[in-house]
Design a protein that fits this description.
Length: about 290
């Protein structure tokens, strides 16, 4: 298949591009060439996508800075530009669209999150994701294409190192402990997150290439654990004993306390379920991290 991956040098995009190439597809990607660029894939500028008749598009590019309050720029990058791209690809015959959304759209609504429940985005980033979901749903109805919205929930794993302060808290905690420092987390560390390993995210995307059951899906582990739990497990696996340092959160009204997801819809309609539990995922991640950590 001829496939476009936007954000192909980002965390999820690079892992996805690599797997798509390994599976024998011809892949083009947008983004800035980096050390994690996949040699088999071809770099393409947005202005040139109209010259290729793609079979499928994986839209992973986004402004994912959850603290960015510039609504105008966020909407341009996360809504208006991808809308324009979807329209161009559709005119050229692309019939399958898979895009990255986020469980941030739920805010602090009741957990476990279900796709058909109320949404309550707490920040500009989450609002932009919900806005694009609304467009994508209308786009599917209008064009009769297959459109899949994947609401990622706290993705972690190899390939996120370049994200620095926007990398997962799992990586940030690992880095702190490996450098001999105590990890800092918001009081009192009992906030919970539903984590999903990158390999499971990639597999969820791949299932959308052949599925006839399109829609919006939670892509998560299906079980939440506290930050205290994560620190304890990383200490256990590294044979360290670093203590948590609790700090105040200056944006409590925009902070999700628990992100646990119901993933039954993805299991039933996409025939997908995560293979990695949180403990298995952290163990593998630690084995693959750079020795310099």
């Amino acid at each position: 298949m001829k496939i476009l991956v936007t954000g192909g040098t980002g965390f999820i995009g690079a892992n996805l591009t690599k797997k798509l190439c390994e599976n024998g597809n011809t892949v083009w990607f947008t983004g800035f060439p980096k050390e994690n660029s996949v040699p088999e894939a071809k770099l393409i500028d947005y202005k040139d996508i109209s010259y290729i008749n793609f079979d499928a598009c994986f839209h992973q590019a986004a402004n994912n800075n959850t603290l960015d309050q510039n609504k105008e720029i966020m909407m341009i990058e996360n809504v208006h530009k991808p809308k324009e791209m979807f329209e161009i690809l559709n005119k050229n015959g692309c019939k399958r669209f898979i895009y990255a959304s986020s469980t941030a759209v739920y805010g602090n609504e009741q957990t476990p999150y279900k796709e058909d429940q109320n949404t309550n985005p707490l920040n500009t980033y989450a609002k932009s994701k919900l806005e694009f979901e609304k467009y994508a749903t209308e786009f599917e109805e209008k064009t009769k294409n297959k459109v899949f919205g994947l609401r990622y929930c706290n993705v972690y794993g190899p390939g996120e190192y370049h994200k620095e302060k926007r990398s997962s808290m799992i990586l940030q905690i690992i880095q702190k402990i490996k450098s001999g420092k105590n990890p800092k987390i918001f009081k009192d560390g009992n906030q919970k997150r539903d984590w999903i390993y990158i390999k499971d995210v990639i597999q969820a995307n791949l299932t959308c290439l052949n599925s006839e059951n399109s829609g919006i899906f939670n892509i998560a582990g299906g079980k939440s654990v506290s930050f205290n739990f994560i620190i304890n497990k990383i200490n256990q696996y590294l044979k360290t004993n670093k203590k948590e340092e609790y700090i105040d959160c200056n944006f409590l009204n925009k902070f999700q306390n628990n992100t646990e997801c119901d993933i039954s819809k993805a299991k039933k309609m996409l025939n997908w379920s995560p293979e990695y539990g949180i403990e298995q995922g952290i163990k593998e991640y630690l084995s693959l991290l750079r020795p310099s950590f």
